[in-house]
Amino acid sequence: MNKEELKEHLATLLAEPQFEEGTEWTTIAIDPAAWESLARELKNAGPLHFDYLFCLTAVDWRTHFTMVYHLTSTTHRHTLVVKAKLDHENPVIRTVSDIWRTAEFHEREAFDLFGITFKDHPDLRRLFMTDDWKGWPLRKDYEDPVNMIKL
Amino acid sequence: MDVGPQNMERQNLEPQKNGSKPFPGEVHPTAGGGILVTKLDEVINWARSNSLWPLVFGTSCCAIEMMSTAGAKYDWSRFGFEVARATPRQADVIIIAGTIVNKMAPVLKRLYDQMADPKYVIAMGACATSGGPFFYNTYSVVKGADHVIPVDVYIAGCPPRPEALLHALITLQEKIKGARNE
Q1: d(CA A112, CA A126)
Q2: Continuous segment of H or E residues that includes residue B76
Q3: Interhelix angle B162-177/B34-49, nearest 10 degrees
Q4: I need a labelling partner for A33 at 20 to 30 A (CA). Which of A54, B103, B175, B180 fits?
Q5: Is residue B142 a contact partner of residue B107, using CB atoms and an 8 Å limit?
Q6: Stated pTM of the model
Q7: How far is A105 from chain B, CA to nearest CA, in Å?
Q8: Tens of pLDDT along B84-128?
């Protein structure tokens, strides 16, 4: 599916699809509450078949977080970027580790460094930092007077 | 005693006092072992400095430059470094080629402790020297590998070119040749 066909197809799935313009890959902003059903559709629907989650990350905008999912299809060779806006005080989103197995560790990383909670994740604990680490190091407001020298 | 011009010259050579020159060369005019021990040190230092076996250790991009130095173009085997060992038990010099993070620090310490004496350390590049680009605003990087283990030679650069690493290795050789076993 090319970009336009992909957009048209996605428009049939969502009531109000919000596409980002001027991006290399088709990018769509979604409501976190609708993420699970959409993710299953993206993975399982024959013409979409996004079977490969090749990147999962988060962005701290100080006012909110954005979860970013990069999906591609190894059969159709099309790519989609999904973005979900999360609350800064209580960032929660449903896990996709049961849909794309690779998300299990990616979500642990996002939890470890950004403190984003993934609902229903089978093993949500720290990945890179030590188990007794306090705080979320990649957040913009992170302070660490012991290890960090502020410029 | 016949003090000819030739003998005068020979007499002036000993006892040697080389002044500002680093060891070797201070030969004590004591009867017996003085000269022998001193000369043995020189031989041992010469042998050590020309067969330094580096440990296969690299934590980031400096390791790529280190591999390049080991490769055919720069070829550190010209100076006796070609026997890179994957075990610290057989290595003489550890080239800290890359960033040392807090989680890596105990590993580095253990590797250094496992190396047999005499052992030498080269801090390659900005990260190993001071934390480099990760000095400010980072939660995970050790601000210089010398917080963990003692360092003999530091190399500037990010990453240093292979020539710089070769220069550091030769500097280390000079340092070893000037060393004295007490």
Answers
A1: 5
A2: none
A3: 170
A4: A54
A5: no
A6: 0.76
A7: 19
A8: 889 999 999 999 999 999 999 999 999 999 999 889 999 999 999
Q: How far is B32 from chain A (nearest CA, A)?
A: 57
Which string of b and e fits B125-143 if b means at least 16 CB within 10 Å? Answer: bbbbbbbbebeeebbbbbb
Evaluated on CA atoms A89, A27, A7, A46, the torsion sign reads negative
The answer to whether the CB atoms of B136 and A137 lie below 8 A apart is: no
For the record, the structure tokens of B143 come out as: 């601000």
3-state secondary structure A103-147: HHHHHHHHHHHHCCEEECCCCCCCCCCCCCCCCCCCCCCCCCCCC
Query: Choosing among A113, A146, A147, which should be mutated to test the B contact, i.e. which has the most B CBs within 10 A?
Result: A147
Alpha-carbon Rg of chain B, whole angstroms? 20
Residues of chain A with C-beta less than 8 angstroms from the C-beta of B139: 137, 142, 144, 147-148
Q: What is the pLDDT of residues B122-160, one digit of tens each?
A: 999 999 999 889 999 888 999 999 999 999 999 999 999
For B138, the closest of A128, A130, A148 (CB atoms) is A148
Measured CA to CA, the distance from residue B87 to residue B112 in angstroms comes to 11
**B136 vs A149: CB contact, 8 Å cut-off?**
yes
Given its phi and psi angles, is residue A100 left (phi above 0), alpha (psi -120 to 50 degrees) or beta? Answer: beta
* Nearest 10 degrees: Cα torsion B70, B71, B73, B75: 40
Q: Which helix (H) or strand (E) element contains residue B150?
A: none
Residue A141 sits at the vertex; the CA angle it makes with A21 and A120, to the nearest 5 degrees, is 70
Query: DSSP 3-state assignment of B143?
Result: coil
Minimal-distance CA residue of chain A relative to B136? A149
Query: Which chain B residue is nearest to residue A140, measuring alpha carbons?
Result: B137
